Amino acid sequence: MSAPDPFEAARPRLVRLAYRMLGQLGEAEDVAQDAWLRWRGAEQSAIADPTAWLVRVATRLCLDRLRGEKSRRAAYRGPWLPEPLIEDLDEDPVERAEEVSVAFLLALERLSPLERAVFLLHDVFEDDYGAIAETLGRSDAACRQLATRAREHIRDARPRFAVPQEEATRLALAFMAAARDNDLETLKSMLAEDAVMISDGGAKRAAALRPLVGRADILALLEGVASRRNWLATSRVRLARINGYLGAILDAEDGVVTVAFQPGRTGQIAAVYLVANPDKLKGVASTQA
Question: Is residue 127 within 8 Å of residue 55, measured between CB atoms?
């Protein structure tokens, strides 16, 4: 029996790391492919730890992409959300929900590229500071300092409690039904007072141009949208796990939309994340597929 291929063994980790670094699945796959090209061209017999070598290469590739992405991200019209990570509800989750939640990925976006890399490598992937220092070309002490700063910024982003899937499903279905029927009283009762709603259309489809903060702000938008058209007026809905949250894939009139619901501590919805940007939904199958 032939020995397992080191790259194929490391590939899932490379994609997981790159997705958290970049917030885009397609980019994460590209990083893994570029790492494979570097691996194929390397003197493999001289590499003592192939996994560590590949992680180092993938991290540096991500940092290069983040630096190149800075100006394009600054020009992005409206709120930016990560490309949705979709898993079937009837399958065991591949990812830990708190490590791919939209809130967590948005918190990572607020870190510098180096802070993001150190935090993910140490706190999520459990690499030691010596290896991280070698990867980033920084001292051990500098990496520890970067990690400390990152933790301060990201401390409150991870969900600290779990909601049973049955309860999350009930919340999501009830919210979508109330929004479809323009039932503002029910929506008001379901949304936490400090709930947020973020929609990402990428200037290619209709979406709010700012995050909506607070129950009243969200209800005002939903009421206004319902007077013109209803973004939930479709019977073509498939429930799915989206970035660890209970969510849905909708076939709207102008294409696929994903909606993820973040439950709150009070049994209400703490956040709604809607992705309509077609560039981020190329891999999302229609509910009719």
Answer: yes
Among 152, 121, 114, smallest CA distance to 16 is for 121
Helix (H) or strand (E) holding 192: strand 191-200
Report pLDDT digits (tens) over 25-59. Answer: 999 999 999 999 999 999 988 999 999 999 999 99
* Position 1, amino acid: M
Q: Using one digit for the tens of pLDDT, what is the confidence trace for 215-260?
A: 999 998 887 765 555 555 555 888 899 998 889 998 877 789 999 9
- Letter string b/e over residues 277-289, b meaning 16 or more CB atoms within 10 A of that residue's CB: bbebbeebeebee
Cα–Cα distances in angstroms (integers) from residue 91 to residues 19, 243, 247, in the given order: 20, 14, 15
Global pTM?
0.88
Residue 164 near residue 89 (C-beta atoms within 8 A):
no
Please name every residue paired with 257 in a beta bridge, in sequence order, or none if there are none: 250
189 is written with which tokens?
Answer: 């009762």
Decide if pLDDT at 159 tops 90.
no
Tell me the C-alpha distance between 277 and 282, whole Å: 9
Which amino acid does the sequence have at 146? Answer: L
In the chain, how long is the greatest CA-to-CA distance?
A: 67
What distance lies between CA 252 and its chain's CA centroid? 22
Rounded to whole angstroms, the Cα distance separating 89 from 244 reads 10
d(CA 271, CA 243): 13
Q: What's the rounded Cα separation, in Å, for the pair 192 and 210?
A: 19
Q: Retrieve residue 259's tokens.
A: 């909606």
Q: How far apart are CA 112 and CA 134, in angstroms?
A: 18
Contacts of 4 (CB under 8 A, 6+ apart): none
Instruction: Kindly give, in sequence order, each residue whose CB lies less than 8 Å from that of residue 65, ignoring residues fewer than 6 positions away.
Output: 22, 27, 31
Q: At what angle do helices 50-74 and 129-136 cross, to 10 degrees?
A: 60
